[in-house]
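Handout, section B. The chain below has 170 residues.
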Amino acid sequence: KKGFDVLIDSLALLKKRGVAFRAVLAGDGGEEAPLKALAATHGVDSLIWFPGWITQKKPFFEAIDLFCLPSRHEPFGIALLEAMTQGLPVVASDSEGPLEIITNGIDGMIVEKGDPAMLADCLEQLIADPAEAALLARNAYDTVKKHYDLPVASSKISAALETIAAGLHL
């Protein structure tokens, strides 16, 4: 569901194109061994670090240059919002949550689910153009502050609850 196999396939394409990178594939679960095997098959295992579940998120986000969420199914995207809040450029698949959050080319990049070539193209573009990556990151931060910051979200929830209560004549 998280599409990490697609990410590994895209990293293999980047390596073939001669793009320098190091990747961190965070998280844990039953897919770790198959993903490590896929990375080895593609010859990118030495370029990918699998740290497991990340408990200290701030140092994690400070240590990376861009964030990728290649999910086949992502109903919301908390990790995406966290990355955007940290001022990172983001690339995400066109799954449900990211499509609600990101405006493609403005505050992030959206790629077709399951398309490693398209994902590799976007990653390569951001690696090659730090100015574009920085602009996307600034816009991503602004998007989160404007639409998802706690005071904004709280007022939206409060308004929705008031509408529901008025409809119930409480």
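Note. Strands lie at 23-26, 48-52, 67-69, 90-93, 109-111. Compare this with the example in section A.
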